[in-house]
């Protein structure tokens, strides 16, 4: 890929607004997440059809652990259902799934199911679906720095060896290209500790649509907008 290439290889999404969607309807927040999980299925399918090679979804941040026990457990149950349902669909559509984040904070059965899905879909080549789960970008960056410091302490590298490539290779996303486009739904215009290193040159797109109302038509129109943007990567 050349620097001026507008090809959308990696799409990252912050799926926001489930709670507000539910509140507007007088429903419990968990219902918003349930509807949001349906949107996930639609968007995974649509992104594959639109030729996206990598799709990264922010499903649960390290900060989300501070939500009420009731909401965390509703989200975890949804995730369990999704992980069970998904294998057949992932295989049929050639989707490889990977997870990024602090796995050890999750329940054992979820960790096992994640590993199982990763193994079972490892050879699929059409699209990589990356789910950020218990993920926080600052922690990811700190962990990379720790790994590099340990290598230096052992004498395996010297400080001058540390470069962008080495640092990138220490991140969870080491095998993926950087996102070309980041979409956040629900009208909030923040990054919320998501892929801070990786989105250095990503195009950003904020839509007021709440995640449960998001769909493939809107995705197609955002991608069309992306295709018209000129990416200069700091050049004139
Ligand atoms: C943000 O909405 C959304 C989340 C914290 C969770 C995202 C989870 C899903 C879409 C469903 C499960 C995911 C998968 C991969 C099956 P919010 O609760 O912050 O909404 P609010 O800002 O309106 O309160």
Commentary on this structure:
The protein has helices spanning 18-24, 29-49, 69-92, 108-120, 137-153, 164-169, 216-228; strands at 10-14, 54-61, 95-100, 127-135, 181-184, 203-206. With 236 residues, the protein is of the alpha/beta class. The protein has a six-stranded parallel beta sheet, sandwiched between helices. Helix 2 (29-49) packs parallel to helix 3 (69-92) and helix 3 (69-92) packs parallel to helix 4 (108-120). The chain is globular, with a radius of gyration of 18 Å. Farnesyl diphosphate (FPP) binds next to helix 1, helix 2, strand 2 and helix 3.
SSE order and pairing:
Layout: E1 10-14, H1 18-24, H2 29-49, E2 54-61, H3 69-92, E3 95-100, H4 108-120, E4 127-135, H5 137-153, H6 164-169, E5 181-184, E6 203-206, H7 216-228
Parallel strand pairs: 1-2, 1-5, 2-4, 3-4, 5-6
Return the string of H and E elements: EHHEHEHEHHEEH
Quaternary structure of the protein? single chain
| Strand fraction | 15-25%
User: Poorly predicted ranges (pLDDT <50, ≥5 residues)?
Assistant: none
Work out the helicity level.
Answer: 40-55%
Judged by helices, strands and strand pairing, the structural class is alpha/beta
Provide the gyration radius in Å. 18 Å
| Tally of domains | 1
CATH topology: Undecaprenyl pyrophosphate synthetase
CA(first)-CA(last) distance: 19 Å
Shape: globular
Strand order of the largest sheet: 3-4-2-1-5-6
Give the distinct bound molecules.
farnesyl diphosphate
The CATH superfamily is identified as: Decaprenyl diphosphate synthase-like
Largest sheet: 6 strands, parallel
CATH-derived architecture: 3-Layer(aba) Sandwich
Number of strands: 6
- CATH class value: Alpha Beta
**Tally of contiguous helical segments:** 7
């Amino acid at each position: 890929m050349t620097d001026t290439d507008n090809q959308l290889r990696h799409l990252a999404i912050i799926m926001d607004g489930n709670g507000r969607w539910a509140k507007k309807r007088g429903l419990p927040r968990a219902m918003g997440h349930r509807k949001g999980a349906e949107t996930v299925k639609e968007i995974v399918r649509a992104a594959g059809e639109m030729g996206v090679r990598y799709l990264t979804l922010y499903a649960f941040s390290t900060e989300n652990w501070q939500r009420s026990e009731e909401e965390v457990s509703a989200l975890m149950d949804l995730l369990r259902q999704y992980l069970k349902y998904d294998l057949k669909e992932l295989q049929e559509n050639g989707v490889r799934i990977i997870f990024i984040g602090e796995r050890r904070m999750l329940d054992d059965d979820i960790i096992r199911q994640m590993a199982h899905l990763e193994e079972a879909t490892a050879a699929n080549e059409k699209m990589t679906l990356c789910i950020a789960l218990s993920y926080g970008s600052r922690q990811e960056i700190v962990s990379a720095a720790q790994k590099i410091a340990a290598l230096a302490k052992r004498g395996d590298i010297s400080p001058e060896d540390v470069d962008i490539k080495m640092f990138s290779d220490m991140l969870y996303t080491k095998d993926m290209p950087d996102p070309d486009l980041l979409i956040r739904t629900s009208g909030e215009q923040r990054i919320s500790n998501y892929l801070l290193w990786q989105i250095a040159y990503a195009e950003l797109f904020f839509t007021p649509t709440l995640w449960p109302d998001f769909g493939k038509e809107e995705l197609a129109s955002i991608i069309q907008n992306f295709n018209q943007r000129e990416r200069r990567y700091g050049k004139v």
